[in-house]
From TrEMBL:
Keywords: Metal-binding
BP terms from Gene Ontology: small molecule metabolic process
Organism phylogeny: Bacteria, Pseudomonadati, Pseudomonadota, Alphaproteobacteria, Sphingomonadales
Pfam families: FAA_hydrolase
Recorded family membership: Belongs to the FAH family.
Domain of life: Bacteria
Listed GO MF terms: catalytic activity; metal ion binding
Organism: Sphingobium jiangsuense
Protein name per its UniProtKB record: 2-keto-4-pentenoate hydratase/2-oxohepta-3-ene-1,7-dioic acid hydratase in catechol pathway
Amino acid sequence: MRFANVNGRSALITDGGALDVEKASNGRFSSDPAKIFLAWEEFRQWAGAATGDPISFDIADLRSPSPEPTQIFAIGLNYLDHAMEAGVKEEPLTPAVFTKFRSCLSGPEPYLKLPSANVDWEVELVAVIGKPAHAVSIENGLDHVAGLAVGQDYSERLVQLEGAMPQFSFGKSFPGFGPIGPWLVSLDEFSNPNDLAISCTLNGETMQSSRTSKLIFSLPELINRLSHVCALQPGDIIFTGTPSGVGGARDPKIFLRPGDEIISRIEGIGEIRQICR
């Protein structure tokens, strides 16, 4: 199942286009994508047999699949090669957790307004929570996931790193710095949701290429650790971390410029694309 936010309305993506959820369900499920996660299991069962007349849509019509999360979690240094390029000499023993503020969320193909000449890219696998999770075991972690999407954790490196203490959340929350999409793919669509190819290109050149099986802390383990501190709510978002190849770790450093095109891809999900201006 592919669940999408099409111009602010809940939709199922089919081979023929977008099926409006409220219309196809005769009002049983809301047109508001944020409300779908409150009844995700019931919705998922209905969606498996949903029928109707899909309509065509443009990628530009897509918005964030989860537009109003209660919480956004982001994980730093969660691929060993990225941790090493960031100067960390040993594999982290615990996840580095921060947040991205909700105002940074966007759909999969907006223009990205650059606030400075210090903006970097970080392709990430994003998970959206589908049912409440508190003190969840690793073995049951994926049971609480509604689906997976492609995300970018854009980062203004000067703001992120200036001062005596790093400002990760602040430097990663400018408008448009949290694009997610193009849709949310349910876990039953993957043969192995813990091992997906992930990549990012800049103007056609591959900058990042890895597999999510190389995460230091897998998605089930992240849910286990996060849920032992915070009660995870339906619609909550987890950015799971980025592999090596970010611009700020290169010599010389590479940051985004107006006109640059960034395409982020994950196997079995699709791609999101931003043009800088």
